[in-house]
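Possible regression after last week's pipeline update?

I re-ran a chain I had predicted before the update to compare outputs. Posting the input and the new output here so someone can diff against the archived version. Not blocking, just want to make sure nothing changed silently.
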Amino acid sequence: MTKPGSIRHRYRIEPDWNDLPEHTNTLQGISRTEVRLRFRREKNSHRGLREFTELKELVIFCPNQDAIEEIGQLQSLEFLYIDETRATDLSALTGCRSLRHLTIKGGTQVPSLMWVADLPPLESLLLENFKKITDITPLVSLSTVKALGIEGSMWTQQKLDSFTPLSGIPQLEALFITNCKPTSAGLLPLHELDNLRYLECAAFYTEDEFMALQKALPQLSCDWFVRIREHGSIKAAIKASIKR
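New output (post-update):
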């Protein structure tokens, strides 16, 4: 769980777990005027979610396709965090016209990102373990996003064709690509991101690639820049971290 005060909290791709409402797996007895909700779907316990018309922040676990359709009717929703969904079509989320922060972890059955183009003007978007996705070209439509994450899960690597589409999102300030590996071009497309200030990634690249990126973007903060400088190589940096 991410520590409060981290970059992920600052850009709101992770909720402040200590500040969330009490967890519930039923909507019975909960006021429809609630503005924040942490909810786990069990069977049909999500039915009636659309009635929470004043809801601004929703953390939901295991929503199915029907639950996604209900969420899509929440016009006041500003922050949505989805943990594990078997839904195949996320286009209903484009109906949340007040949405500014969207995180979806475990979208394993989603076949395409075409729906992203119709989302409202987001400030942050994180997609984790979308294992059927390799083409991220639709992300170039994210003209307002300042923090973006395309990540694999702890056990599953996210494979992409290339990071090249990211060069079409010049306003990006923070990029999270942990356990995500492109099949071509490596980190080179990131050289075009003049506003990028923070990068989280795995050690899938050579020392030369990291140093070239640092030279292209001297304002960029990346843990691997520091670790390579301290230890001389990625291999030595990893070995040193294991010894701790």
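Follow-up from reviewer: compared with the archived run. The mean pLDDT is 95. Marking as no regression found.
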